[in-house]
Amino acid sequence: MRQTTTTQYKSTSLSIKLAFPVNWVPGITIATDIICGFPGETEVDFQETLKLIREYKFPSLFINQFYPRPGTPAAKMEQVPAQVKKQRTRVLSQLFQSYTPYDSTIGEKQQVLITEESFDGQYYVAHNKFYEQVLVPKQPELLGKMIEVDIYEAGKHFMKGKPAQNGKIHTPSIVKPLLKGEVSGMTEEIKTLSKNGTALPARCTGERSFSASLFPWNVKGPRVKIVSVSLAVLAVITAVTMAIFR
């Protein structure tokens, strides 16, 4: 774990838990990365790392074997033998796979959003508010819905839940979903005209008349003043230029 000791790690972890009390962020998750075989790592250091993992049972743990990058200070340090690094990495991986971090959730009720089908096609995949994966029964009417589930089983990277009895089901959407083939942004007037086969007025299509496009001064209002001022300025510039080059 580089130069960070387990004592320092525990102190940092405790600070995080104190900064985010359980009633603020219940179920807060702490993940970590471990570089296995960093230069100077002793067997005692490695055993301390194993002890830390057993204590915290990280649900997310990234194990990397140290590789010396040329030109870095660590590359010049005394290296841990390659075979030792491989063996320690294997032990760490086995320890990580030996526990299931979600056992404590069995029996809980959780709100989940069902988003997709699982890779094996046997379940729908949902996520709770911590973005932890919850597998639920494949009931087509639940896809895209937010429901309450009872957690009845836990695996290494997931939980399994079933819809709670009398649980509310709702669609997490701000506006009513569009019907199939419906185009967003259409007013009721445009919908009615389109349905009746009536040509849409220029203000609905964004088109301008031919005369207005070619001759903007034909349009009444402020645009006439802008064009007049522009022509006057152009005339002055032309006159001055001709006077200079005579």
UniProtKB/TrEMBL annotation:
Record-annotated Radical SAM core domain positions: 1-103
Protein name stated in the entry: Uncharacterized protein
SUPFAM superfamilies (alphabetical): Radical SAM enzymes
Residues covered by the TRAM domain: 103-165
Bilayer-spanning residue ranges: 226-245
Alphabetically ordered keywords of this record: Membrane, Transferase, Transmembrane, Transmembrane helix
One Gene Ontology term of the molecular function aspect: tRNA (N(6)-L-threonylcarbamoyladenosine(37)-C(2))-methylthiotransferase activity
Signal sequence segment: none
InterPro entries according to UniProt: rSAM, rSAM_sf, TRAM_dom
GO CC annotation terms, alphabetical: endoplasmic reticulum
